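Hi everyone,

Forwarding the result from last night's run.
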Amino acid sequence: MQNGARIEYDYSVAKLFTFATILFGIIGLTLGVVLAFQLAFPELSNLAGEYGTFSRLRPIHTNGVAFGFTLSGIFATWYYVGQRVLKVSLKESPFLLAIGKLHFYVYFITILLAVVTLFAGVTTSKEYAELEWPIDLLVVVFWVLWGISIFGLIGIRRERTLYISLWYYIACFIAIAMLYLFNNLEVPTALVSGYGSWIHSVSMYSGTNDALVQWWYGHNAVAFVFTTPIIAMIYYFLPKESGQNVYSYKLSILAFWGLMFVYLWAGGHHLVYSTVPDWMQTMGSVMSIVLILPSWGSAINMLLTMKGEWQQLQTNTLIKFMVLASTFYMLSTIEGPIQSIKSVNAIAHFTDWIPGHVHDGVLGWVAFMIMSALFHMAPRIYGREIYSKSLLDTQFWLQTTGIVLYFTSMWIAGITQGMMWRAYDEYGSLVYSFIDTVTVLHPYYTIRAVGGLLYLIGFFLFAYNMYKTATAGRVLDKEPVNASPVAA
């Protein structure tokens, strides 16, 4: 930009990652619904042989949503937000533009290989770290490429101040780089034993050490994939969509540093009542409780940004998505710490309350925020109005209903499970057999599956609306200032 000329941003990489977000979202969420119906109706597991079993499909679902859908959304928004808050275009650096495109293609190939290998049953069997070492190396490559993009754009920026959203993107990059490398240190089986597979590997850790490193990584995969970059999105897109300034910039910075310090120590709450030293379990529980403060600090800051402008909820569906996302963030970040309290964990652990907690966070907070961010971006990257407001509204209510059905059924199912498992008679014998709990929970599993199906239908509406926006929305003469334009 010379002499005050308008910057022409390059959205080619953002468009590629937007496509990936929708594709992997469809794959991950569809498999989630299939798995939910399998739990409610186990005979469905036999329809496709070994490749249709719960154990084969579940890792594809979790990885597809976490590292397919969510990471694609993070990268798509980065290549949009990064240019805008730094006041620099990728067009000005052919090198960074090439890096961005290489980032996408390496990432896309990596996730496709992840789907194929997990479908084939090639897995380390470690939660959120199922991929074998050759694919881990590809993850490192595309992560380094993203880092070059982040710090490369920062290096040529025109805007001196780094807006708070950038802090959260940078935290995501640095923390995952550290966590992923340490947790995925592994050796090929053939190298260890002299025979076996060169693809399959064994962890360099064992026993309790392996558990500690795994959940140091596992919980912080939630912290720095499902949390910090999503906060980066809402700190940018909510003020942009509403035309309001962030309520408190100081609070955003305090919450940032609180999250950075506390989150890294909370992973021990996954190992309560295990062989991990008791002081580590207690530290995990205590840090989880302390985590409420910075988490709610961020969420309240988001909600207070709408102070005096709540009437926008009546007219702007994207504001409804973002406000409800913040509300689900508050719900999820008080529910997790409650579950980490030892007395509560004794009832909650291994029950369906845990997936209930995970999904009200991922579906209500993460996915709502990513979809609303892409809807905000769409008129600006495609130069067209959002295709249909009625589809947008229908999507919102379908998915909100689906989330409520999902988490309420799983709360009830989980607490019921925990209480039945702990019920003893006067002789100290268990009152209920395992199959008794399975029978009692069947209605709740069915409700969960229906809720997931409603959410999936809403996601297909999202995908269709995005496609029609890019191809058939009314062409805009100029970029909208605040609220995203929608066709009547």
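The longest strand covers residues 186-188.

Cheers,
N.
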